[in-house]
Amino acid sequence: MDSTPVNWEALDALVIDFAKSENLIEDSTPSPSPSSSSSSSYHSRLLIRQIRRSLEAGDIDVALDLLRVHAPFALDDHRLLFRLQKQKFIELLRKGTQEDRDAAIYCLRTAFAPCALDAYPEAYEEFKHVLLAFIYDKDDQNSPVAYEWSERRRFDIAGLLASVLRAYLNAYDPIFSMTLRYLISIHKGFCFRQGVLSPISDLTERLLLEECDPAAMPPEIMYEASPFNEVDIQALAHAVELTRQGAVDSLKFSKGDLFRAFQNELCRMRWDVSLLDELVHEYCVYRGIVDSASTSLPGMQVMSGPADVNKSGSRWCSLQADSPEVNCGSCKVPHYEPSTGNALMDGSPEGQNAVTSTQTTEINERYPSETAGSYEDRGTSGTLQRNSLIVQQRNRNHGIGERIKRKHCRGRHEKVGLMSEVLGGSGREEAGSSYMVDGLIFREDKYDMMLALKELTGRGMASEVVEEINAMDPNFFVQNPDLLFQLKQVEFLKLVRSGDHSHALRVACSHLGPLAASDPVLLRPLKETLFALLRPNEEAFGEHLPLHALATSVQLAIGRRLGIEEPQLMKIMKATLYTHNEWFKLQMCKDRFDGFLRINLLKVGTSLLADAASMSSDTSNHGSSQATMASNSSTGQEDVGSPTQISSADVSCDENAILKVMEFLALPRADAIHLLVQYNGNAESVIQHIFA
């Protein structure tokens, strides 16, 4: 599962959009209308979270006050109002004092009983039943009103109201959040049905919870039979595991809008928000989106001195801007710039040694207790230790890897005031302690080196990347020959594009040929590479090389070499995209929602040259064809990333016949198709045979 190639650039865009939408980072993009829309959605989600927390805590009056001010339409629905008044009645009785008992009777007379008259047909019977709470104790588990006393009722009404408010306020979660929910739910279902052991089960079980919010109730005028397309009903039912009636009710609530119903159902899925934030933060640090100095990873220690306390309380630090400092709350990490940086301009060994010596001395003076232990703890080789700062300085000379200022990032605001902070979104949580990495400077050096080499690769500077990696670790490419082959491919194609064919052939003879001779799998990519010499559009072909793909391959390999673990979010995406492919192959159809959730952009092919040729031949699809591959992506394996591989059996069966068999026999799509194939596509014959 973990070998599935993923377009990490597309995932970067989704993750950044998620962080901005959830107000985890400051968005200074000068685009008033999208920013205003995003801000409105954020504050609506914030309002829903506050109402949910109030209801779950039993503070019904607080929730009612928020609804009256911000969402009075919810109280116009007497079905919701009746449930809220019933819960308020129970919560007043739960307190147990005489004063609260009197308040419960007053609520009963003035609000609860009037609502029971016209809320819905069964409301009056429920009203009479809940009056038994006066005589049965809340701790009596055998009483007829034990369920009414249960605190689980709080969570049910909170989830129901959240589902309603989310739809009416258009306060849907960011696309990334919905995409991850959808992929994980398919992954779980696929592994369960196929008997496959999931390599990410420890994460998915903790991240996506089993319980869901109750579904929103469709308007009463929609209770009659619906004219919805059966294709839409089945697509929604199978996408989010609903019964057919559940899918119909969801479409009724969304007034027939399939994608709105799909969003409603996805956002009902509950998950651990704090764990999601951790996964996203880890990914952002790894990809260079936020600063690594403030990340809370293994090896961190809590600082206790008052001078070292960072009051920001945020696990998020920053997006990239332009300055020589890192701003993380009130704590600034200075950039250590060597005083002899110009000595490296000529690349002389003497200059390199001078810089290494100067930087090491400076680090020893500033962090005397951390320098010796931090390298030893990480088990880094002597060669890597000696050349780490050299490589970083070389990258700075290329204009890469400069320590830059980051924009201030907020933590998630979970403790929101009753009115003002819901409206203004101001207010910031504070923490009494901060974290600091043991051996901060060296850890930052590792991230800087990894990200600098990734950046160089993304700019197409393949020869420079090979030189830097060889300087860092001469044995690296011995263990990663595929990566060297891909880098030399890029170098070769750049030389061909510039017209320097003789130099390109020398690269092919010196590197590509010997590598292909030692690994027969590389022969086909070698032939494809050499074929570029004959192409009339070498320039266009070369410009469309998926360099971001190779950049990620370099980052992954260098990260492993430096002891930097691959983010868990990457593992989740690889596994879930793989099972998404396999699931829709079994269903023998295309996912109707993959474009809406950007899943089609997250999937890529596996051939560097094939992707480049595809992009150069169809420039109109350039944006959606940008590829990213794993370090072994040049092996010429068959692309398993396409969800559009539909079998001939599916093509020969009429869609209406498939749906008829699915509906009458309550079968999955794949089983319905297999039955239809046996009876030449005749749905009536299949049904008659089953019921005969």
Structural class comes to mainly alpha
Percent helix among the residues?
A: 55-70%
The poorly predicted ranges are 31-35, 294-315, 317-383, 398-408, 415-442, 538-542, 613-651
Helical run tally: 34
Task: Outline the biggest β-sheet.
Answer: 2 strands, antiparallel
Question: Which overall shape is indicated by the principal axes computed on the Cα atoms?
Answer: elongated
Total E-strand runs: 6
What Rg is obtained from the alpha carbons, in whole angstroms?
30 Å
User: Order of strands side by side in the largest beta sheet?
Assistant: 1-2
Average of the residue pLDDT scores: 74
Care to describe what's here?
α23 (481-498) packs antiparallel against α24 and α32 runs parallel beside α34. β4 (325-328) and β5 form a beta hairpin. Among the domains are: 31-168, no CATH class; 318-416 and 435-559, no CATH class; 648-691. 60% of the residues lie in helices and 3% in strands. The protein has 692 residues and is mainly alpha-helical. The model is unreliable at 31-35, 294-315, 317-383, 398-408, 415-442, 538-542 and 613-651 (pLDDT under 50). The strands form three sheets. The protein has a two-stranded antiparallel ribbon with strand order 1-2. Strands 3-6 form a two-stranded antiparallel ribbon. It is elongated.
